[in-house]
Each structure stands twice: as C-alpha cells, then as structure tokens.
Design brief:
single chain, 231 residues, Endonuclease Iii, domain 2, Endonuclease III, domain 1, 2 domains
Length: 231
C-alpha cells in the first residue's frame, strides 16, 4: 500500500496539467477594473472563506469605489459596502472584517495612486515579479507576501511566485520539505526560505512553483475533508 506522501504527490501531479492548462488559457489581466477586483479579492480573502471574499469584491466593484480617484470618503464607502449583507450562493452572509479591510483597501488605493496612478501602470513600469511583490508588501496595507503572490499569479503576471497558504504549508510538512508546522508566514525572509524549498520541489517535478501550489491547494482541501486523510 502506498504511503500518504506518495498518494499526495501522485494526486498533485495528476491534476497539475489541468491547472496549467487553465492558467495559460486565461489572458493576462490588463483592464483596470479587473485588476482592482482581483486586488481587492486577494486582500479580502485573508482569514475569510473565498466565496465570501469574491462576493465582497463584486459588491465593491459594482460601486466603482476603487476605480474612482481616492478621497476622504473612500474608506467610509468601502466600510459601508463591506458592512452590508452579501449574497453568497443564494444566502446572505456578513463579512467578518469590514472596518479593517475597508481601511486597508482605501490606503492601498491612495498608495498606488500616488506612486503610478493606476494598478495597470504599476504592473507596466515594474516587470520584475519579485520586486513587484516586495513593493506591494511594503507599501499596501493588507498585502502580505501570500496575498501579493496570489494577485500577481491570478492576473497572469508571474507563475514563479508561491502562494504559501495553510494548505500548501501543511503539504510541505507532510512531504518532509520542512520540519516545523506553520499555518501562515508573515516575514519576507521566512517566506523566501519556504518558497525556495517549494520551488526546488516543483522543479524536480517539471512544474512551475506558482502553479503547483494551486494544485497542492486543491489536493489538500480534498485530503482534509476526509476523516482518514485518504482519497
């Protein structure tokens, strides 16, 4: 009987080609509306179920708040939208952090407006993904290394940055790629270290680190839904 490690790796390798095909079938996002929607979704998804974050990002997008020039009312409008019930798959739910996330998104809008005017301009003027990620982490509230990596991946900017969420970190521990168990990483040095380890693992499988993490995320969610951890 195969070990848990073997079954996990086999599952990741099996679905990787589908993940890769899906990623490369989507054009790189360039429209400002799509960029801000993806940006807000990445910020809003921290410690929140992803469908709820998507619903919140959709609500913000409908009001054009982040497409408008930042003003003294931007934060207030964002908090108001995030405080209202959100339709998630036919049922209404409340977003968990309306005040803090509204403040973070408003501050990010100001920072990006002051730096390059638009998100699109920022991505055009700096085409080094590692440098871009670091800029987001240093200059935009709510954007840690995981969220910044996710934003750049989901926009099609780079598939060479890892999204190290709790599912991916658990996989790395189970596979013996790291010795300690962490559910999140907040500092850049620690993030770089784990990302380098996962990149080496991905390279050995002939995969991109920014896509294999996606495959791992899918597999580990399935794995953790079973009582015995088997497929």
């Amino acid at each position: 009987m195969s070990s848990v490690r073997e079954r996990l790796e086999r599952a990741v390798v099996t679905i990787y080609s589908d993940v890769e095909e899906r990623a490369f079938s989507v054009p790189v996002a360039t429209e400002e509306r799509l960029l801000w929607k993806e940006f807000s979704c990445c910020v809003l998804s921290s410690q929140v179920p992803y469908p709820l974050a998507v619903a919140a990002a959709d609500a913000i997008d409908r009001e054009d708040v982040l497409l408008s020039d930042p003003s003294d009312e931007t934060e207030e409008r964002l908090v108001s939208i995030l405080s209202a019930p959100l339709n998630v798959d036919g049922s209404f739910r409340r977003y968990r952090f309306p005040a803090s996330r509204g403040r973070q998104l408003a501050a990010a809008r100001i920072a990006i407006s002051d730096h390059t005017g638009t998100l699109g301009n920022l991505l055009k003027t700096n085409q080094d993904p590692v440098s871009l990620r670091l800029w987001f982490v240093k200059n935009t509230l709510g954007m840690g290394p995981k969220q910044a990596s996710m934003f750049l991946r989901n926009c099609g900017v780079s598939y060479d940055l890892a999204v190290l969420d709790r599912h991916v970190l658990e996989f790395m521990t189970r596979m013996g790629l790291c010795s300690d168990t962490q559910s999140s990483i907040s500092t850049m040095p620690a993030y770089y270290k784990r990302e380098t380890t996962l990149r080496y693992y991905a390279n050995n499988l002939g995969a991109a680190v920014g896509l294999i993490d996606w495959a791992i995320w899918i597999v580990m969610r399935m794995f953790n839904k079973t009582e015995t951890g088997s497929f």
